[in-house]
Amino acid sequence: MFYYVEKDELILYAENSRSTFSLGHGLAGLAVTDKKAYIVNDIKQSTVFNKLVDISSILPIYAIPLVDNNSTSEDDDGNESVFGVIEFVLRTNFQSKKERDALMECQGGYFGFEDHITNVLNKYARLVIHAMRNTNFKEI
């Protein structure tokens, strides 16, 4: 799940519609407010869960804000810009040990993960931030 962040709101674009939520909604809002990634093992039992905003899953949820640490633009309070927030479902159960090994072990640098999955997701988030910064998406 991906939300843009503009003017203290989470914005979701889906199926030709635009939905807005305050930053007080769900794990996504908490990650943006605190500018910090979170892993919640049972999101439905969490006090921050909001069914309108958060992914509903029995698997752990990883929420990471897209904080632009290199930005020259800051908000009115001098804080770093937050472009958006991404929520991922962390798959923990595999059909077999072979499936797990194929995913978790890097072979030739092409498939799998050398790092822990959260490190890989953090790298992905940095790529998204870089792409958004280079496209000047706020001016579109």
Q: Can you give a write-up of this model?
A:
The chain has a single domain (2-139), classed as Beta-Lactamase (2-Layer Sandwich). A hairpin with a 2-residue loop joins strand 2 (9-14) and strand 3. The chain is an alpha+beta fold and 140 residues long. It is built from 3 helices and 6 strands; from the N terminus they run E-E-E-H-E-E-E-H-H. Strands 3-2-1-6-5-4 form a 6-stranded antiparallel β-sheet, sandwiched between helices. It is globular and about 40 Å long. The model is unreliable at 106-114 (pLDDT under 50).
Walk me through the topology.
Elements: E1 2-6, E2 9-14, E3 17-22, H1 26-34, E4 38-40, E5 61-68, E6 81-89, H2 97-104, H3 117-135
Antiparallel strand pairs: 1-2, 1-6, 2-3, 4-5, 5-6
**CATH first level:** Alpha Beta
Overall, the morphology is: globular
The profile of the biggest β sheet is: 6 strands, antiparallel
Classify the oligomer: single chain
Helix content: 25-40%
Features:
140 residues; alpha+beta; 3 helices
